[in-house]
Design brief:
Layout lengths: L2 E5 L2 E3 L5 E8 L6 E7 L6 E7 L4 E3 L7 E6 L4 E6 L8 E7 L2 E2 L3 E5 L2
Parallel strand pairs: 2-11
Antiparallel strand pairs: 1-3, 3-8, 4-5, 4-9, 5-6, 7-8, 9-10, 9-11
Length: 110
């Protein structure tokens, strides 16, 4: 059983920045960590991920604005979000292999 502790969500103005963090406990061999997001009435969509070996990817709409990083020794992943837009508003979910976090609300509004 793996537990994911998410932090960093909240309210930010358009054009601002926010960093999401996720720490995994209960395993020392997590391969893939990343983030998905979901808005009411829509399916959960992929945002970004990074493997223990350092390979990573981003969904096209966030490329150039979001940066994902990972600390393998601490089993943590970070998503630095900049140039935020109102359409980035969603609940962001951390995942690690087959496990999901509870979700972090992020609201981009003036």
């Amino acid at each position: 059983q793996v537990h994911l502790e998410e932090s960093g969500g909240g309210l930010v103005q358009p054009g601002g920045s926010l960093t999401l963090s996720c720490a995994a406990s209960g395993s020392s061999s997590i391969n893939v960590m990343g983030w998905w997001r979901q808005t009411p009435g829509n399916q959960r969509e992929y945002v970004s991920h990074i493997t223990s070996g350092g390979s990573l990817n981003y969904e096209d709409s966030v490329k150039g604005r979001f940066t994902i990083s990972r600390d393998n020794a601490k089993n943590t992943v970070h998503l630095r979000m900049s140039s935020l837009k109102p359409e980035d508003t969603a609940v962001y979910y951390c995942y690690a292999d087959a496990y999901w976090g509870k979700g972090l609300p992020v609201t981009v509004s003036s």
